[in-house]
Amino acid sequence: KAKMTIFIQSLDYNMWDLIIDGPNLPTVTLENGNVIPKPMNTYGNNDRRRVQIHAKAKHIIICAINSNDFNRISSCISAKEMWDRLEVTYEGTNQVKEAKISMLVHDYEMFTMNENEDIKSMFSRFTNIINALQALCHTRSQPQLILPRTDMTFHMTTSFQKLPHDFYKGHFKH
Prior knowledge:
Elements: H1 2-11, H2 13-21, E1 27-29, E2 35-37, H3 45-63, H4 67-73, H5 79-91, H6 94-109, H7 119-135, H8 149-161, H9 165-168
Antiparallel strand pairs: 1-2
Helix pairs in contact: 1-2, 2-3, 2-5, 6-7
């Protein structure tokens, strides 16, 4: 999702707005107040541009997905509908998202360094939790992203105590 978002925004931010907000296709208001789609033969330049951006948005989404996903969205009329359906397919409904967020927040709050785990692996696990939370639009302020100092100190000390004495030579200045 993040890659597609950045890709589409880099091509045309109006296109991204169209995917998120809906196509806003040209319409005409009749004398009785009813609003109907504007006939294509009456489109002006601005109308054609909006319709073209919408067609490009649908094309980009279709080109970025596999055949199984295409079958899921082939009946969608708008790029927004396509995006929303893919979002539910891969992220789940709001209830599923909330459950995932709850689980990830728990993982974050209970995060500690595992036995026999190196710093690189620990940081990678931590980053995966943060990235998953951000992907689900659950952001934390920068100070909250810092691991608890006491846990880290204890676990890092334990890890360093297990390292062979030769490891320290040349890695730390005296």
